[in-house]
Amino acid sequence: MRQVQSTKSKAQMKTRPSAKKAAKKPSVKKTEKAQAKDRALGLLPKNQVLQMMDLMVKSRVLEERLIKVYKAGDAFFWIGGPGEEAFGVPLGLLTNKGQGPAYDYLHLHYRGTPTLIAMGMPYLESIRLIMNRATDRSTGGRNFANHYCYPEWNVVPVGSPIEVQYGMAIGTALAQRRRKMKKEASGVTIVTGGDAGSAEGDFASCLIWSSRPGNELPIYITVQNNKWGISTPFSEQHGEKNVADRGKAFGIRTNVVNGNDPIESYFQIQGDLDYIKKNTRPVLTEFHVSRLYGHSSASGANRDSGEDPIELFEKRLVDSKYVAPGFVKELWAQYDVESRQAADIARSEAGPSKDTIWDHVYADGENADWRKF
Ligand SMILES: Cc1ncc(C[n+]2csc(CCOP(=O)(O)OP(=O)(O)O)c2C)c(N)n1
Ligand SMILES: [Mg+2]
Q: Does residue 211 lie in a domain region?
Protein backbone atom coordinates (compact mmCIF):
# COMPACT_ATOMS: atom_id res chain seq x y z
CA MET A 1 0.00 0.00 0.00
CA ARG A 2 1.62 3.24 -1.00
CA GLN A 3 1.49 6.17 1.36
CA VAL A 4 0.45 9.30 -0.42
CA GLN A 5 1.33 12.55 1.25
CA SER A 6 0.58 16.01 0.06
CA THR A 7 3.34 18.32 -1.10
CA LYS A 8 3.19 21.53 0.92
CA SER A 9 5.09 24.64 0.10
CA LYS A 10 5.47 28.06 1.67
CA ALA A 11 7.08 31.16 0.35
CA GLN A 12 9.75 31.54 3.00
CA MET A 13 13.28 31.40 1.69
CA LYS A 14 16.44 30.16 3.33
CA THR A 15 19.98 30.53 2.12
CA ARG A 16 21.41 27.25 0.91
CA PRO A 17 24.57 26.55 -0.97
CA SER A 18 23.42 27.75 -4.37
CA ALA A 19 22.55 25.27 -7.09
CA LYS A 20 25.31 24.52 -9.53
CA LYS A 21 26.63 27.69 -11.11
CA ALA A 22 25.71 28.48 -14.70
CA ALA A 23 26.69 25.56 -16.81
CA LYS A 24 28.75 25.41 -19.94
CA LYS A 25 26.83 24.82 -23.13
CA PRO A 26 25.79 21.16 -22.99
CA SER A 27 27.33 18.88 -25.55
CA VAL A 28 25.09 16.85 -27.85
CA LYS A 29 25.99 13.75 -25.88
CA LYS A 30 24.93 15.37 -22.59
CA THR A 31 21.66 16.59 -24.08
CA GLU A 32 20.83 13.09 -25.23
CA LYS A 33 21.55 11.82 -21.74
CA ALA A 34 19.28 14.47 -20.23
CA GLN A 35 16.46 13.43 -22.55
CA ALA A 36 16.91 9.81 -21.60
CA LYS A 37 16.59 10.81 -17.95
CA ASP A 38 13.45 12.76 -18.72
CA ARG A 39 11.92 9.64 -20.19
CA ALA A 40 12.62 7.85 -16.92
CA LEU A 41 10.83 10.63 -15.04
CA GLY A 42 7.78 10.09 -17.20
CA LEU A 43 7.46 6.50 -16.03
CA LEU A 44 5.83 7.70 -12.82
CA PRO A 45 2.83 10.05 -12.48
CA LYS A 46 4.03 13.62 -12.04
CA ASN A 47 2.48 13.98 -8.58
CA GLN A 48 4.42 10.94 -7.42
CA VAL A 49 7.68 12.34 -8.78
CA LEU A 50 7.01 15.60 -6.92
CA GLN A 51 6.05 13.74 -3.80
CA MET A 52 9.38 11.96 -3.90
CA MET A 53 11.25 15.25 -4.26
CA ASP A 54 9.24 16.68 -1.35
CA LEU A 55 10.01 13.76 0.93
CA MET A 56 13.70 13.73 0.04
CA VAL A 57 13.99 17.39 1.00
CA LYS A 58 11.87 16.81 4.09
CA SER A 59 14.21 14.06 5.22
CA ARG A 60 17.40 16.01 4.50
CA VAL A 61 16.17 19.05 6.41
CA LEU A 62 15.43 16.84 9.39
CA GLU A 63 18.90 15.30 9.28
CA GLU A 64 20.50 18.71 9.08
CA ARG A 65 18.36 19.81 12.02
CA LEU A 66 19.52 16.76 13.99
CA ILE A 67 23.12 17.74 13.26
CA LYS A 68 22.44 21.30 14.44
CA VAL A 69 20.79 19.94 17.57
CA TYR A 70 23.91 17.89 18.26
CA LYS A 71 26.27 20.77 17.54
CA ALA A 72 24.28 23.10 19.79
CA GLY A 73 24.91 20.68 22.65
CA ASP A 74 21.31 19.44 22.84
CA ALA A 75 22.28 15.84 22.05
CA PHE A 76 25.17 13.51 22.83
CA PHE A 77 25.56 11.92 19.41
CA TRP A 78 24.36 12.07 15.83
CA ILE A 79 24.29 9.41 13.16
CA GLY A 80 21.90 9.37 10.24
CA GLY A 81 21.18 9.11 6.56
CA PRO A 82 21.80 12.34 4.62
CA GLY A 83 22.75 11.18 1.13
CA GLU A 84 20.56 8.06 1.21
CA GLU A 85 17.26 9.80 0.40
CA ALA A 86 16.98 8.50 -3.16
CA PHE A 87 16.98 4.97 -1.77
CA GLY A 88 15.20 5.44 1.56
CA VAL A 89 12.25 7.49 0.36
CA PRO A 90 11.13 5.07 -2.38
CA LEU A 91 11.55 2.22 0.09
CA GLY A 92 9.23 3.93 2.58
CA LEU A 93 6.67 4.66 -0.13
CA LEU A 94 6.64 1.06 -1.33
CA THR A 95 6.51 -0.60 2.08
CA ASN A 96 3.17 -2.14 2.94
CA LYS A 97 2.80 -0.42 6.30
CA GLY A 98 0.96 -2.08 9.16
CA GLN A 99 1.36 -4.30 12.22
CA GLY A 100 1.87 -8.04 12.17
CA PRO A 101 3.09 -10.61 9.63
CA ALA A 102 0.42 -9.74 7.06
CA TYR A 103 2.39 -6.51 6.48
CA ASP A 104 6.00 -5.83 5.61
CA TYR A 105 8.65 -5.85 8.35
CA LEU A 106 11.46 -3.32 8.35
CA HIS A 107 14.79 -4.22 9.95
CA LEU A 108 16.58 -0.92 9.46
CA HIS A 109 19.97 0.38 10.46
CA TYR A 110 20.82 3.86 11.71
CA ARG A 111 20.45 5.55 8.32
CA GLY A 112 16.70 4.97 8.06
CA THR A 113 15.30 8.48 8.46
CA PRO A 114 14.32 8.87 4.78
CA THR A 115 12.26 5.68 4.99
CA LEU A 116 10.51 6.72 8.19
CA ILE A 117 9.81 10.18 6.80
CA ALA A 118 8.27 8.64 3.69
CA MET A 119 6.10 6.45 5.93
CA GLY A 120 4.80 9.50 7.77
CA MET A 121 6.97 9.99 10.85
CA PRO A 122 6.61 13.55 12.20
CA TYR A 123 9.78 15.58 12.82
CA LEU A 124 9.11 15.87 16.52
CA GLU A 125 9.39 12.12 17.05
CA SER A 126 12.88 11.98 15.56
CA ILE A 127 14.05 15.05 17.46
CA ARG A 128 12.76 13.71 20.77
CA LEU A 129 14.87 10.61 20.16
CA ILE A 130 18.12 12.45 19.49
CA MET A 131 17.49 14.75 22.47
CA ASN A 132 16.79 11.75 24.73
CA ARG A 133 13.45 13.04 25.92
CA ALA A 134 11.07 10.95 28.03
CA THR A 135 8.50 11.62 25.32
CA ASP A 136 10.59 9.75 22.72
CA ARG A 137 8.17 7.08 21.54
CA SER A 138 10.89 4.82 20.12
CA THR A 139 13.07 4.31 23.21
CA GLY A 140 11.76 6.58 25.98
CA GLY A 141 14.88 8.74 25.61
CA ARG A 142 17.28 5.85 26.05
CA ASN A 143 18.93 5.42 22.66
CA PHE A 144 20.83 7.21 19.88
CA ALA A 145 19.57 9.28 17.02
CA ASN A 146 17.91 7.28 14.27
CA HIS A 147 17.38 4.20 16.44
CA TYR A 148 13.70 4.04 15.63
CA CYS A 149 11.06 1.58 16.79
CA TYR A 150 7.50 1.66 15.45
CA PRO A 151 5.65 -1.54 16.39
CA GLU A 152 2.48 -0.43 14.59
CA TRP A 153 4.47 -0.18 11.33
CA ASN A 154 6.55 -3.34 11.92
CA VAL A 155 9.69 -1.20 12.27
CA VAL A 156 11.64 -3.37 14.68
CA PRO A 157 14.06 -1.61 17.07
CA VAL A 158 17.21 -0.40 15.34
CA GLY A 159 20.26 -1.83 17.07
CA SER A 160 23.69 -0.27 17.55
CA PRO A 161 25.77 -3.41 16.89
CA ILE A 162 26.00 -3.37 13.14
CA GLU A 163 24.47 -6.03 10.92
CA VAL A 164 22.60 -7.97 13.62
CA GLN A 165 19.45 -6.92 11.81
CA TYR A 166 20.30 -9.37 8.99
CA GLY A 167 20.18 -12.23 11.47
CA MET A 168 17.00 -11.01 13.14
CA ALA A 169 15.25 -10.49 9.82
CA ILE A 170 15.36 -14.24 9.20
CA GLY A 171 12.85 -14.67 12.05
CA THR A 172 10.11 -12.48 10.65
CA ALA A 173 10.75 -13.80 7.14
CA LEU A 174 10.41 -17.39 8.35
CA ALA A 175 7.14 -16.54 10.10
CA GLN A 176 5.90 -14.95 6.89
CA ARG A 177 6.92 -17.95 4.80
CA ARG A 178 4.98 -20.25 7.11
CA ARG A 179 1.89 -18.08 6.78
CA LYS A 180 2.27 -17.96 3.04
CA MET A 181 2.41 -21.77 2.90
CA LYS A 182 -0.88 -21.83 4.85
CA LYS A 183 -2.31 -19.31 2.37
CA GLU A 184 -2.62 -16.68 5.07
CA ALA A 185 -2.08 -13.00 4.33
CA SER A 186 1.62 -12.37 4.49
CA GLY A 187 4.01 -9.51 3.84
CA VAL A 188 7.67 -9.31 3.06
CA THR A 189 10.66 -8.81 5.37
CA ILE A 190 12.95 -5.94 4.39
CA VAL A 191 16.43 -5.47 5.82
CA THR A 192 18.85 -2.59 5.25
CA GLY A 193 22.49 -2.16 6.19
CA GLY A 194 25.91 -0.94 5.19
CA ASP A 195 28.64 -2.32 2.95
CA ALA A 196 31.24 -2.72 5.70
CA GLY A 197 28.79 -4.53 7.93
CA SER A 198 28.36 -7.18 5.25
CA ALA A 199 31.69 -8.56 6.52
CA GLU A 200 29.90 -9.69 9.70
CA GLY A 201 28.73 -13.26 10.08
CA ASP A 202 25.13 -12.14 10.41
CA PHE A 203 25.13 -11.19 6.75
CA ALA A 204 26.38 -14.63 5.69
CA SER A 205 23.78 -16.26 7.97
CA CYS A 206 21.12 -14.21 6.27
CA LEU A 207 22.16 -15.43 2.82
CA ILE A 208 22.23 -19.04 4.00
CA TRP A 209 18.92 -18.98 5.84
CA SER A 210 17.05 -17.11 3.17
CA SER A 211 18.00 -19.55 0.41
CA ARG A 212 17.64 -23.03 1.97
CA PRO A 213 16.26 -25.25 -0.83
CA GLY A 214 12.54 -25.72 -0.36
CA ASN A 215 12.51 -23.17 2.46
CA GLU A 216 13.36 -19.95 0.63
CA LEU A 217 12.30 -16.84 2.50
CA PRO A 218 10.27 -13.81 1.36
CA ILE A 219 13.06 -11.44 2.34
CA TYR A 220 14.40 -8.32 0.67
CA ILE A 221 18.09 -8.11 1.56
CA THR A 222 19.42 -4.66 0.74
CA VAL A 223 22.88 -3.16 1.17
CA GLN A 224 23.50 0.58 1.04
CA ASN A 225 27.03 0.79 -0.28
CA ASN A 226 28.52 4.21 0.51
CA LYS A 227 32.05 2.81 0.06
CA TRP A 228 32.98 3.42 3.68
CA GLY A 229 32.90 1.69 7.04
CA ILE A 230 33.63 4.65 9.32
CA SER A 231 37.09 5.57 7.93
CA THR A 232 37.93 2.29 6.18
CA PRO A 233 37.44 2.38 2.41
CA PHE A 234 35.46 -0.35 0.65
CA SER A 235 38.26 -0.73 -1.90
CA GLU A 236 40.70 -1.99 0.72
CA GLN A 237 38.41 -4.57 2.29
CA HIS A 238 36.36 -6.26 -0.41
CA GLY A 239 37.81 -8.80 -2.83
CA GLU A 240 34.35 -9.20 -4.36
CA LYS A 241 33.45 -6.64 -7.03
CA ASN A 242 29.97 -6.12 -5.65
CA VAL A 243 28.60 -7.09 -2.25
CA ALA A 244 25.51 -8.34 -4.09
CA ASP A 245 27.60 -10.88 -6.02
CA ARG A 246 27.80 -12.94 -2.85
CA GLY A 247 24.13 -13.81 -3.25
CA LYS A 248 24.81 -15.58 -6.54
CA ALA A 249 26.49 -18.51 -4.80
CA PHE A 250 23.18 -19.13 -3.02
CA GLY A 251 21.01 -18.85 -6.11
CA ILE A 252 19.63 -15.55 -4.86
CA ARG A 253 18.53 -13.00 -7.44
CA THR A 254 20.92 -10.04 -7.18
CA ASN A 255 21.12 -6.48 -8.49
CA VAL A 256 23.44 -3.50 -8.22
CA VAL A 257 21.79 -0.13 -8.81
CA ASN A 258 22.38 3.59 -8.53
CA GLY A 259 20.76 4.39 -5.20
CA ASN A 260 21.27 8.10 -5.83
CA ASP A 261 18.56 8.04 -8.49
CA PRO A 262 15.10 7.89 -6.87
CA ILE A 263 13.37 6.74 -10.06
CA GLU A 264 15.82 3.89 -10.59
CA SER A 265 15.54 2.95 -6.92
CA TYR A 266 11.74 3.12 -7.02
CA PHE A 267 11.37 0.73 -9.93
CA GLN A 268 14.07 -1.60 -8.64
CA ILE A 269 12.43 -1.84 -5.22
CA GLN A 270 8.97 -2.24 -6.71
CA GLY A 271 10.15 -5.01 -9.06
CA ASP A 272 12.09 -6.76 -6.30
CA LEU A 273 9.14 -6.71 -3.88
CA ASP A 274 6.80 -8.02 -6.56
CA TYR A 275 9.20 -10.88 -7.32
CA ILE A 276 9.57 -11.78 -3.63
CA LYS A 277 5.80 -11.77 -3.07
CA LYS A 278 5.10 -13.81 -6.17
CA ASN A 279 7.85 -16.40 -5.74
CA THR A 280 8.46 -16.51 -1.96
CA ARG A 281 12.15 -16.21 -2.67
CA PRO A 282 14.81 -13.73 -1.51
CA VAL A 283 16.35 -10.85 -3.46
CA LEU A 284 19.65 -9.13 -2.66
CA THR A 285 20.02 -5.63 -4.08
CA GLU A 286 22.97 -3.31 -3.55
CA PHE A 287 22.29 0.42 -3.77
CA HIS A 288 25.22 2.76 -4.33
CA VAL A 289 24.62 5.80 -2.15
CA SER A 290 26.44 8.86 -0.78
CA ARG A 291 27.47 9.60 2.77
CA LEU A 292 27.22 13.37 2.83
CA TYR A 293 28.04 14.21 6.46
CA GLY A 294 30.69 11.63 7.19
CA HIS A 295 30.13 8.66 9.43
CA SER A 296 28.56 10.36 12.46
CA SER A 297 29.21 13.13 14.96
CA ALA A 298 32.28 11.08 15.93
CA SER A 299 33.87 12.23 12.67
CA GLY A 300 32.56 15.79 12.94
CA ALA A 301 29.24 15.59 11.04
CA ASN A 302 30.45 18.17 8.54
CA ARG A 303 29.38 18.34 4.92
CA ASP A 304 31.52 16.01 2.85
CA SER A 305 32.15 15.69 -0.86
CA GLY A 306 30.09 13.28 -2.93
CA GLU A 307 27.16 13.20 -5.29
CA ASP A 308 24.08 14.80 -3.75
CA PRO A 309 20.96 12.90 -4.84
CA ILE A 310 18.73 15.88 -4.04
CA GLU A 311 20.73 18.31 -6.16
CA LEU A 312 20.78 15.83 -9.01
CA PHE A 313 17.03 15.20 -8.83
CA GLU A 314 16.25 18.89 -8.54
CA LYS A 315 18.26 19.57 -11.69
CA ARG A 316 16.35 16.91 -13.57
CA LEU A 317 13.01 18.30 -12.44
CA VAL A 318 13.99 21.84 -13.38
CA ASP A 319 15.42 20.76 -16.74
CA SER A 320 12.23 18.91 -17.59
CA LYS A 321 10.09 21.80 -16.31
CA TYR A 322 8.40 19.80 -13.56
CA VAL A 323 9.30 22.59 -11.13
CA ALA A 324 10.53 26.15 -11.44
CA PRO A 325 14.05 27.04 -10.32
CA GLY A 326 13.72 28.03 -6.67
CA PHE A 327 10.99 25.51 -5.90
CA VAL A 328 13.28 23.30 -3.85
CA LYS A 329 14.77 26.27 -2.03
CA GLU A 330 11.28 27.31 -0.95
CA LEU A 331 10.41 23.81 0.13
CA TRP A 332 13.65 23.64 2.07
CA ALA A 333 12.85 26.88 3.90
CA GLN A 334 9.38 25.67 4.82
CA TYR A 335 10.71 22.44 6.28
CA ASP A 336 13.49 24.28 8.03
CA VAL A 337 10.93 26.32 9.96
CA GLU A 338 8.98 23.17 10.78
CA SER A 339 12.12 21.44 12.02
CA ARG A 340 13.14 24.38 14.21
CA GLN A 341 9.69 24.50 15.79
CA ALA A 342 9.85 20.78 16.53
CA ALA A 343 13.30 21.18 18.09
CA ASP A 344 11.97 24.01 20.29
CA ILE A 345 9.18 21.77 21.55
CA ALA A 346 11.51 18.85 22.27
CA ARG A 347 13.99 21.11 24.03
CA SER A 348 11.32 22.18 26.49
CA GLU A 349 10.55 18.57 27.48
CA ALA A 350 12.08 16.52 30.29
CA GLY A 351 14.49 13.61 30.03
CA PRO A 352 13.56 10.17 31.38
CA SER A 353 13.39 9.70 35.13
CA LYS A 354 15.65 7.14 36.77
CA ASP A 355 12.78 4.86 37.76
CA THR A 356 12.17 4.08 34.08
CA ILE A 357 15.63 2.63 33.48
CA TRP A 358 14.36 -0.97 33.43
CA ASP A 359 11.24 -0.31 31.38
CA HIS A 360 10.99 -2.31 28.16
CA VAL A 361 14.11 -4.35 28.87
CA TYR A 362 12.08 -7.57 29.11
CA ALA A 363 8.47 -8.26 28.14
CA ASP A 364 6.11 -6.65 30.68
CA GLY A 365 9.12 -5.61 32.77
CA GLU A 366 9.40 -9.11 34.22
CA ASN A 367 12.62 -9.60 36.27
CA ALA A 368 14.04 -6.54 34.58
CA ASP A 369 15.62 -5.08 37.70
CA TRP A 370 18.20 -7.58 38.95
CA ARG A 371 18.30 -5.78 42.31
CA LYS A 372 14.76 -6.97 43.04
CA PHE A 373 15.44 -10.67 42.34
C1 LIG B 1 29.33 -5.32 15.83
C2 LIG B 1 29.85 -3.94 15.69
N3 LIG B 1 31.12 -3.72 15.33
C4 LIG B 1 31.58 -2.46 15.18
C5 LIG B 1 30.75 -1.41 15.38
C6 LIG B 1 31.26 0.02 15.18
N7 LIG B 1 30.70 0.55 13.94
C8 LIG B 1 29.64 1.36 13.93
S9 LIG B 1 29.20 1.81 12.39
C10 LIG B 1 30.46 0.94 11.72
C11 LIG B 1 30.72 0.97 10.23
C12 LIG B 1 29.60 0.46 9.45
O13 LIG B 1 29.87 0.65 8.10
P14 LIG B 1 28.80 0.20 7.05
O15 LIG B 1 28.27 -1.13 7.41
O16 LIG B 1 29.38 0.36 5.69
O17 LIG B 1 27.62 1.23 7.27
P18 LIG B 1 27.64 2.82 7.09
O19 LIG B 1 27.96 3.38 8.41
O20 LIG B 1 28.65 3.14 6.05
O21 LIG B 1 26.26 3.16 6.66
C22 LIG B 1 31.21 0.29 12.70
C23 LIG B 1 32.40 -0.54 12.43
C24 LIG B 1 29.42 -1.65 15.74
N25 LIG B 1 28.53 -0.67 15.92
N26 LIG B 1 28.99 -2.92 15.89
MG1 LIG C 1 29.35 2.01 4.44
A: yes
